[in-house]
Amino acid sequence: MGRSASRHHAQQDGSCPSVRTPPERSPRSRGRADVRGDRRREGAVTRDGNADALSDPTLVARGLDVLDDVFYVYDADRRLVYWNERLNEVFAATDEELAGSDPASFFLPEDRDRVEAAVREVIEDGETTVEARADTPEGVVRFQLTGRRLHDGDDVVGFSGIGRDVTERREREVQLALQNERLEEFANLVSHDLRNPLQVATGLLELELLGRERERDGRDSDDGRDSDDGRDSDDGRDSDAEDRLERVADALDRMGRIVEDVLATARGGGEIEDPHPVSLATVAREAWDTVDTGDAELAVDTQTIVEGDPDRLDRLFANLFRNAIEHGTADHDRPVDTDPLTVRVVDTDGGFAVEDDGLGIPADDRDRVLDSGFTSKREGTGFGLEIVERIAEAHGWTVTVEGSDEGGARFAFDIGLDRPVE
Predict the structure, then answer these.
(1) Could you tell me which residues come within 8 angstroms of residue 60 by beta carbon, excluding any fewer than 6 positions away?
(2) Whole-angstrom Cα distance, residue 180 to residue 177?
(3) Short-list 183, 372, 187, CA closest to 266
(4) Are 346 and 302 in contact, with CB atoms under 8 Å apart?
């Protein structure tokens, strides 16, 4: 809808004149806009010396119509009596449809009480500000609404205000809050989970250095000791040193995995800026090759192609496969009298699923396994499955943790498909 030099004004009987012909208003409806127009007409001129443009009585109406914000005036009975063209555009409504509307009628039912309270506040206190959501032809829009009380002498005749679209601003605020929450999680992780293996590594290295110092001191004082006894002592010290250094290596390896998972978590939830067609079967097989799967087997039965980020989907599958291997078997090894663990990627009605025939996830833990830091393994970081969920969310998907038909774990992804799968 183009913007016109119109003045949207409902008459006292509820009728509404044509939007392109300013109505003739009564003295009560003569507002501050006309007073300003009178003051400008008393001597104001344009830069080129032309005073006629400023004396046009439709100037203020045209100025309001070019605003990106909605402008409105309600009378003391809470009926819409004046508005700019932006209100027509937002709701794709005619003047006849808008005239006399109640303030709360524009907004979602769950937000109407808030709007009603704001109307009472502006009438009683003189001003108000509130946010409310409206269902428009372009989707749900969040508005910041202002109100200022209007007077005619000592009488309250209504209120006016501005409705500003703050949908994107609120989305940015929510995103910022989520980012701050993640930063807090990372800070807690660095201060706790990284500190523990670092202290282990530091302590073991200090023990090794102390042992080597004592060894040097012992050589100076034990020159007369039997050579065989010396060899036995050296062998014991070498064994202890090797054990300590292996534990140091394990601690440093854990620190490396924590750092890798933290970075993956931070990157996994970002928006997919340049999605590509990705075959789930192909990316699943490629991810399987990057995981230490032992004698486990992969069965792929999916024809689904999605629009997404191949690298992030590779990590999603790799984390699910690693979880199946590490948590789906007892101590990572299947009993010798059972078949190898099998992990399957299958199509579902709404998308796809990754399932296994391992030990499964206890029902009480299924709502928690996707939470940050949750792990049932002492050496786990608790970030693997959270990364899976964030990558899914970045693609606009949801993931549900279930039990498989074989008694193992099942991660079902709803990617918005609606198809029957036999």
Answers:
(1) 33, 34, 36, 37
(2) 5
(3) 183
(4) yes
Residue entry with tokens 């003045």:
7
The single-letter code of the amino acid at 94 is: T
What residue type is 117 in one-letter code? A
- Number of other residues whose CB lies within 10 A of the CB of residue 322: 17
Q: Which two tokens stand for residue 9?
A: 């004004």
Q: How far is CA 189 from CA 262, 265, 383, in A?
A: 9, 12, 10
Taking CA atoms, 226 is separated from 213, 219, 223, 233, 235, in Å, by: 21, 12, 9, 11, 15
Contacts of 368 (CB under 8 A, 6+ apart): 374
DSSP-derived secondary structure for 149-167? EEEETTEEEEEEEEEEE-H
Condensed to tens digits (0 to 9), the pLDDT of residues 96-122 reads 999 999 999 999 999 999 999 999 999
Three-class secondary structure of residue 75 per DSSP: strand
Distance CA 92, CA 163 (A): 16
241 vs 208, 213, 231, CA distance in Å? 6, 13, 15
- What does each C-alpha distance from 135 to 92, 138, 236 come to in angstroms? 11, 8, 77
Instruction: Express each pLDDT in 306-354 by its tens digit.
Output: 999 888 898 899 889 988 888 766 544 444 446 789 999 999 999 999 9
Please report where in the chains the tokens 């045209």 appear, as a residue. 62
State the pTM of this model: 0.46
